[in-house]
Protein: Signal peptide peptidase SppA
Organism: Planotetraspora phitsanulokensis
Amino acid sequence: MDATQAIMETVDRLRQRRTAALVLELDLTEGLSEGPPSDPLGALLSMRRARLTDVLSGLRRARTDPRVKGLVVKIGGNPIGLGMVQELRTAVLKLRAAGKRTVAFAETFGEFGAGTVPYYLASAFEKVYLQPSGDVGLTGIALEQRFVRDALAKAGVEYQLGQRHEYKTAANMFTQNRMTEPHRESTARIAESVTEQITAGIAEARSLEPQRVRELIDQGPFLGPEAVEAGLVDALKYRDEVYAEVVEDGAHLMYVSRYAKTALAKRLPHPGENVIALVHGTGAIRLGRSGRSPLGGGGAMGSDTICAALRSARRDDKVKAIVFRVDSPGGSYVASDAIWREVVLARQAGKPVIISMGDVAASGGYFVAMGADVIVAQPGTLTGSIGVFGGKPVVGELLGKLGVVTEAVSEGANAGMFSPVREFSDAQWARVNSWLDRIYDDFVGKVAQGRGLTRERTHELARGRVWTGADAREAGLVDELGGVEDALSLARKKAGLPKDTQVRTYPRMHPLERLRPPESSEDRSAALARVRLEAWGPIARLAGELGLPTYGPLMLPGWWTIR
């Protein structure tokens, strides 16, 4: 065979592949990443995970692509948050309604453990297959809270913390030894609301009565044969049997994210074309740049990074609307306020700003969202938590037990006010409470202004209470229920743009390019992250080890993720 013939045969094979039937594939073993990585380390750690926006884009395109015959998804491994699961369920149900075959496969839903949310995702598919040795851990929703006040007291640690108001329970684990009535009330409603959503979704997708699904939840977990008998699973099959059934007639397998990127390469925005900006804000909110600490912890939403991204989108004449994707439990009040300001400035510049909430957008996460034109959340998104807490651990007794002696020289009556060695004085505690009152008043006032509510009504909805997206919509804190695709469609509509208007993601540079120093604060690379060591002093490390959030006063309680 000469070289020309070999080339011709290769070209022919590629041509056949381009026209062959496709079965899209998605492996959720490693979970999904919410948005683009904010730093080189994050890029490295997320290499094996598909990106949610790529998956949603690919499934949207697949609905009208005659080459795509179906979708097979492996569910299991790393847990996925409820909000993200609901986004995937919606995309799968639309693909299913378009006549495409949808198959979910799992080795197990919990391995005789909790697997309610993974099974909830699987129930959206036309067929659900389970490995014969697997289980279905459909057991409902449990939200647990640990209280360490008494344990810390034995060690000689006491927390002086103030909160606004009774539902702001993030600090309760340090100040209480059991749930307060408001704490129990709000937590019970979250569990009830999420259970209602999961029950309704499974019932509709599996053609079961809601009451029957509720009964099954109380009877779980299920062994494989029991799950088949109950109508939760269609059959018990190994992976090879599932794929032999799904991939027929010479169809090619292709990962959804690869399929989406192939389509994107064919339709890049023209330099002069109008676009929608998509800004991702993920993680606890802090001052400075987004990124992560090599000493531990996940990603963080840095105010410098997000403000610069919003500012860049606002100043780009080709950007006609902005979708701000928020997935954050909150953090620094000052950082949240800086981001809020950029949202307001974008609106004042005549660019609609649409918020798309992920698994959680509460406390500081709600603060950065409340100034937008429209807020879109999933029914299971945790949001609200309009409140504040602050204070410090007092470890003087503990240090004394360890034989540690602390001496200080200071100038100023309150110079050592934030030292963890001693308690606040009465005058200092009064200043702490004035600070908390000011933040809460500012928070409530800006919610009232942004949402068109009276301060009295806003206070009723605030007081630190956490809401599901479904309940928040009923209360007026959220405008619509949906995902990032719905937010993008709404942005196009508000900006008067056609449905095929392209999306430009901010920040726009590759993570490795973010290492170069910027020329100024207006340089586009100033919006980008740096890998750096955090200034973690001994007390910050101690607070982190004890579970106290280290990113500021606007935080959600530690159980916020429902998986």
About this structure: Confidence is low (pLDDT under 50) at residues 293-297, 528-550. The first strand starts at residue 22 and ends at 27. The CA atoms of residues 109 and 287 lie 39 Å apart.
